[in-house]
Amino acid sequence: MESLRARLREEKLDGYIITGTDPHQSEYVAPRWRTREFISGFTGSSGIVIITLTEAYLWTDSRYFIQASIELPSCYTLMRSGTEGTPDPWTWLYEYATEGMRFGVDSSTISIAHFSELSSSLKEKKAELVASDDFLSPIWKNRSDVPMTPCEEMEEEYAGKSAHEKLESIRNVLRKRNLRWTFIASLDDIAWITNLRADDIACTPVFVSYLFISLTKAVLFVDERRFDKDLLRIVRKDFSIKPYESAAESLSSLAKGPGYFNPDRVPEIFSSALSGKRNEKGADISVLMKACKNKKELEGMRLAHIYDASAYVSFLSRLDRSQIYDEITISERLENERKKIPGYLGPSFSAIAGFRENGAMCHYKAERGSEKKIDGHGLLVLDTGSQFRFGTTDITRTLFFGADEPTEEEKRDYTLVLKGHLALLSLRFPKGTKGFHIDAIAKQYLWKYGENFFHGTGHGVGCRLSVHEGPQRISPAVIDVPLMPGMVLSDEPGLYKENRYGIRIENLLAVKEDMKTEFGTFYSFETLTLVPYEKKLIEMELLTEEEVRIIDDYHKHVYEVLHELVDSDVLPWLQDATSPLHVNRIYS
Amino acid sequence: MESLRARLREEKLDGYIITGTDPHQSEYVAPRWRTREFISGFTGSSGIVIITLTEAYLWTDSRYFIQASIELPSCYTLMRSGTEGTPDPWTWLYEYATEGMRFGVDSSTISIAHFSELSSSLKEKKAELVASDDFLSPIWKNRSDVPMTPCEEMEEEYAGKSAHEKLESIRNVLRKRNLRWTFIASLDDIAWITNLRADDIACTPVFVSYLFISLTKAVLFVDERRFDKDLLRIVRKDFSIKPYESAAESLSSLAKGPGYFNPDRVPEIFSSALSGKRNEKGADISVLMKACKNKKELEGMRLAHIYDASAYVSFLSRLDRSQIYDEITISERLENERKKIPGYLGPSFSAIAGFRENGAMCHYKAERGSEKKIDGHGLLVLDTGSQFRFGTTDITRTLFFGADEPTEEEKRDYTLVLKGHLALLSLRFPKGTKGFHIDAIAKQYLWKYGENFFHGTGHGVGCRLSVHEGPQRISPAVIDVPLMPGMVLSDEPGLYKENRYGIRIENLLAVKEDMKTEFGTFYSFETLTLVPYEKKLIEMELLTEEEVRIIDDYHKHVYEVLHELVDSDVLPWLQDATSPLHVNRIYS
Predict the structure, then answer these.
(1) Which runs of consecutive H residues, i.e. helices, occur in A177-227?
(2) Cβ contacts from A onto B, under 8 A
């Protein structure tokens, strides 16, 4: 910290901002860019650090308040984002700034849009935002290198389209809009366009790179040593390869004429190369192409879910619920079943297994040493996912443990969450519907009981790519993108009763064309996930006939797809878990 | 038309825009401002006219395509808004304009915001938008005067707050924001603030006026002859009164220092008087105060609905469905029952009674001579409303006529609309929920069957004011205003099967605080409307137990409230119409 402050004084700066992201604005970052953790010791996945000449501040959200207060050294002030009276870091900076002050930020880890916005705001106070170097490198001993895991091809049989075809689709858009080039910093878009995958970021099979595409050429800025000879030959058919580090310099000469880029993803370090007045800005052209999975990608996603489900039901059937597990061993048991599956590459995110009150923390991660024992009565929220060669999965099931019966409240709550989950997955909706229009469909039953959850109901999911992928989302936030056929989304309502228990039920769904009527085109969802719900937690009295039918049909389908894939010891459990719900009520 | 063109040539203009609204941007206008009708002969309630030196165009929406094609003289081109290939009038004008062209518009009938937007767009083409006089007056023989119906007081017992208190609330907002004045052109806001009502616009009890409010005074620009002596004395306690026509001139000297106005409601004619750089713009300060009804206003709305329902059920019980009515006589029969009720002032909008295929036109209005006979099997959509001294109602019921039974399709469709209607009125929702979050709640059941309707589910309603009142709305459009306690909204899903039949079911609801839980504050709706649904059209098989309970509870409440108010001949019908639905099903 003091060497950083010495550098600030040297550079005549009054403060330094550490955004904690990488030069691609990635959600998760490789160890090299865990700058927040290096400077503050805080290991959470989200937070902003601002160091002034005398003070140090870390902003993080409610998930991490406890963790941050333990991990941060005493010289830090913890800023609890979202709590009353706590300004966000940018408002805080605006208020802190006085005439003549100068603040630095590593220009490779802040987006062009964010830099420009923050800069204008500081200008109002006659202060300055300075696009600085990375001041941490000189003082960071044993810092990890830029990652350089080997690249491999996503076979066209799974990708559905060649890199060449994808380049041409992007060029067609450029031509239509009278643009000459586009520059892409977003790692999952680059992986999707190039049909290449690697292992640079844990659970997300991308490779650190930039991509420049003009009407006649494509330049991939990446370390060439990542490719074996054969792959290099293939990649060179469509791309010329230049060193990752040379991107900023090369871009100045490449980006001639009107072009296109996403100022929310491209870092400030490229801003002078991209400053042409006729350039247009917006979401990357590939974003919607990537979001709307093609036929082969959907086939891969389906296959991934079938394989994943066969591992999942094997795991469930082999659990002995009278035995005492803990939150970590239970995730490992599931992981071990998945490892047996052909094409399995690893988890798509760090597993969440939260028993009892731990399940009430949305993003809880059990740590070795403090993991909870699964001993006796309680609910376990198990949120996990897989990367396969051909697709990505993300599934949450809430399991009941205990020799006794679930309480009425547990059953009611599970059933209310399930009702919302089913209402969404069985929804038919008109073309043009956006995520914010239908978030309430999954929440309406909880609301009836004065209950609610405070995350969106669904996020987009990539195909052998990021488990969080935009632009589509189902949440109250106004994201102005309609749901379109081929988009894959999670359907994951939940309920979190602080210090008591959590519930979440998550399937992945694919948007599909459903019917055309005199009232227009309607879409619906294909359910990809194939794992039975926890019948013991279902309160039959709260279900309508239609809901019972939806559950029974789903379970029947799960059995039909899985029964020939699983080992024979799994079958009795599978049969029981997917048998019809018993309904024998007389209504009066 | 030719005298208008002569004037255009005289003023060196290439065209003239007729917005068809009044100097207050009212939705409905007094006869004096039916400029669209005067110039084109088209009598529909919505449309834009542009006259060039050689051509004439009228834009209107799908509701009026047939009517406009009949009414427009041959020199007009009908522009069908919303159909493929038809630009909206402003895009059309942009495309039509060439360098040096000048277009006039009466600066009293276009808002400051719209003038500015259109002006900038024409500037791009080096053309000019000219703030002109009203060119129609000199050529319009027997034009109606500015309306001058007598003003009367909305008694404080119904208004809930005195004009003085309302002025102080507005001044408090001005003080907090360091502003010195506000200027208001919106007629329903002026009526609400002053607690005055008149009869200037059919069905909407407002009076043509402007209102200036500073921290120390309030100036009402209105013809003083509207007030009798006693009322004048009362009004003068809080307002100085100046002539309506003097507003623009007076405002220049009144509007000193930073002030506030709504550029979407104040006409361009005031723009120079309001051009101060430190002025702030936005929705009128009174809009939210008016939208969130106070206790007395809610009491008045409740009373209006009880009285209105007693007339409505009398009308229904006295209908002899074997007799042949027509669309006009049936509205008159309802109106005649309403006229018997104390406090009834008249309809809150022009009644819609559409039988069979006419019901499939959302905004159908039966005209004497072409009204449809109600003869035999069919559905009647009856959308009507009342103004009372103490509140406003708006109700739609769909009635079945015919000696036979409704078809399965009619019953299914009615029941799907009803399910959506019930899902909304029984919804509980968290504080902060906005209308666009819950529009799908009322549409989800229709969507299941590939059906839909293309209007919002709900609009705001005033208290003895406009039957359409903002800002609250329940529709897919993103209106960034949360639903708040005291807001009154309609709940009116429908279904329109072209050339066959229409269905719409509408109650008014008031938002109320409902419960606080560990998950925050929840709101729900109080149902104001008290008229039974059409049981004969309900398909029991499609209802859940909960929906049956909601209907039975509602009907029971209707009976309890109304049975002591209606004449004894109405009682047997009321008892039958509100008796519980018969459910005797065995589910297996």
Answers:
(1) 187-194
(2) 84
User: Which residue of chain A comes nearest to B517, CA vs CA?
Assistant: A450
Longest dimension (CA), chain A: 83
Which of B441, B443, B444 is the best substitution to test chain A (most A C-beta atoms within 10 A)? B444
- Residue-by-residue pLDDT tens, chain A, 588 positions: 889 999 999 999 999 999 999 999 999 999 999 999 999 999 988 999 999 999 999 999 887 888 899 999 999 999 999 888 899 999 999 999 999 999 999 999 999 999 999 999 999 999 999 999 999 999 999 999 999 999 999 999 999 999 999 999 999 999 999 999 999 999 999 999 999 999 999 999 999 999 999 999 999 999 999 999 999 999 999 999 999 999 999 999 999 989 999 999 999 999 999 998 899 999 999 999 999 999 999 999 999 999 999 999 999 999 987 789 999 999 999 999 999 999 999 999 999 999 999 999 877 888 888 889 999 999 999 999 999 999 999 999 999 999 999 999 999 999 999 999 999 999 999 999 999 999 999 999 999 999 999 999 999 999 999 999 999 999 999 999 999 999 999 999 999 999 999 999 999 999 999 999 999 999 999 999 999 999 999 999 999 999 999 999 999 999 999 999 999 999 999 999 999 997 544 443
Tokens of B233: 């004395």
> What CA–CA distance (Å, rounded) separates A166 from A172?
10
Q: Determine contact: B448 vs chain A, CB below 8 A.
A: yes
Peptide bond between residue B471 and the one before it cis (omega within 30 degrees of 0): yes
d(C-alpha A273, C-alpha A263), whole Å: 13
Q: Is the ipTM of this complex over 0.85?
A: yes
Q: State the CB neighbour count (10 A cutoff) for residue B6.
A: 11
Q: Nearest to residue A256, comparing CAs of A270, A271, A275?
A: A275
CA angle A259, A261, A267 (to 5 degrees): 130
- Judged by CB atoms closer than 8 Å, whether chains meet at A517 and B450 is answered as yes
C-alpha span between A382 and A365 (Å, rounded): 11
Alpha-carbon distance of B509 to B490, in angstroms, equals 6
Is there a contact between B333 and B325 (Cβ–Cβ < 8 Å)?
yes
* Amino acid making up residue A76: Y
> What is the C-alpha separation between A226 and A199, in angstroms, rounded?
11
Instruction: In whole angstroms, give the CA distance from residue B422 to residue B544.
Output: 11
Q: How far apart are CA B462 and CA B304, in angstroms?
A: 12
A320: left (phi over 0), alpha (psi -120 to 50) or beta: beta
Neighbouring CB atoms inside 10 A of A507's CB total 27
CA B300 to chain CA centroid, nearest Å: 19
Q: CA-CA distance, B47 to A381, in Å (whole number)? A: 57
The pair of three-digit structure tokens given for residue B125, joined into one six-digit string: 């083409």
C-beta of residue A126 within 8 angstroms of C-beta of residue A199: no
Given a contact cutoff of 8 angstroms between Cβ atoms, the answer to whether A469 and A462 are in contact is: yes
Taken as a whole, chain B contains a residue count of: 588
SS3 labels along B97-109: CCCCCEEEEECCC
* Beta carbons of B437 and A440 less than 8 Å apart: yes
Angle CA B378–B382–B384, to nearest 5: 175
User: Are the C-beta atoms of B429 and B523 separated by less than 8 Å?
Assistant: yes
Tell whether A82 lies on the interface with B, counting CB pairs under 8 A: no
In 3D space, the residue among B265, B217, B259 whose CA is nearest the CA of residue B241 turns out to be B217
Residue showing tokens 């000219």 = B130
Cα–Cα distance between B220 and B212 in angstroms, integer?
6
Nearest to B587 among A430, A441, A585 (CB): A585
**Token digits for A373?**
């024992």
Instruction: Say if strands B520-527 and B507-517 run parallel, antiparallel, or are unpaired.
Output: antiparallel
Contacts of A498 in chain B (CB under 8 A): 518
Rounded CA gap, B235 and B153, in Å?
A: 9
